[in-house]
Amino acid sequence: MLSKEQIISDSKEFSLFSWSAQANVNPIAIERAEGVYLYDCDGNKIIDFSSGLMSVNIGHGDQRVTAAVVEQMQKVSFVTPTCTTEIRAKLARKLSEICPGDLNKAFFTLCGTSSVDNAIKLARLYTGRHKIIGRYRAFHGGSIGGMSVGGDPRKLANDSQQMPNAVLLDDPYSFFGMKDLDEATKLSLSLEYVERIIHFEGKTNIAAFIFEGESGSSGCLHYPKGYLKGVKALCEKYDILFIADEVMAGFGRTGKWFGFENHDIIPDMICMAKGLTSSYIPLGCLMVSDKIAAKFDNTPMMIGLTYNAHPVALAAALAVINIYESDNLIANTKKMGVYLESKIEEMRAKHPSMGSFRNTGLLGCLDVLKNKKTGELIAPYNAAAEDLKVTNLIAAKVRALGLYTFVRWGYIFIAPPLCITEAEIDEGLAIISQALSIADEHLV
Fold this sequence. Notes:
This protein is α/β, with parallel strands linked by helices. 37% of the residues lie in helices and 17% in strands. A seven-stranded mixed sheet has the order 4-10-9-8-7-5-6, with helices on both faces. It is globular and about 65 Å long. The chain starts with a helix and ends with a helix.
């Protein structure tokens, strides 16, 4: 068995780490994981407060998934996508059952990014139009297509490679001059802005809107009440498709099967991944309405993947969905989300650096303040390295105390596995509380 030092050394020497300057990478060498805990190669116990990449929804190390995968591999591990298997039939039917409306057709992909890319292709093939409208404060994956329809600053280094015909919207909570208006006026003006963009870009040129069902890595920024429903209504008015990116928000994360269900809408397509298999095995899915699928009954659907409907990955997904149901994890998400919010509020008396906490189910993000009076965060959106000194101190403290989560700009993300208990929430928040003391000291 390799030593921890050898694991880290060889990993750095012979592999590349995403989104990072390679010289600065300092990975944790993980040996095993169980429930809400990771265990490093020194035997240290680390509580996972972000479910890996907001994706290990059922918790780590559930051997029911292992058993399902082994059973499938003992039958058949791979067939070409032109063949089919029992597990493909079972999972496709199950997804049809849990998806609302006429979202009954599953196109299986490899990950969230490939779900988004194929949604873009299918929207263009179905409508004969070319433009896709997304949001600046959204992330839809690391491919050229996914990066182009989102505005996460990680895309900026690849700007020269962007996909054409991607149009981005500002968000209603970011509009200049709207702060002092009442909510109804803000909503009306926000939707008027969206409709203006539709006309500016040409209503007959727009194939689809793509929105996260619930905002994630941008800071869990909540859509104003009625906003997503209003955007969907505009899509229907102009015969534009609505794609819901549920890669992060899906599969119980927000207290419902899908984040968009919190907004009383039904999209035309759903992009899935992450929680679909709880990240035990890579798999994505693009769920498509019967209306869209019918176009390809007698016309070839020109999208495809070698690993489309990979039997082993499908077996993992069906096992995971069964665990959501048998273990009542969606109900537990709602319960633990309420408990988490109450404990966060209790912490405010101790930490003046705490700002807003935006949470839906167990998809939460805490603002950490630099200035209490103005609400300025300890680091701005897309902060430069010199602006991240306090953020880096907080991140280092969290890690040193045995908690894994994302600390990004002025945000601390809190999105633990859906199986978490009150005692485990208390354990994680106690560590975050210690780290917030650093921010308290730098408050102005």
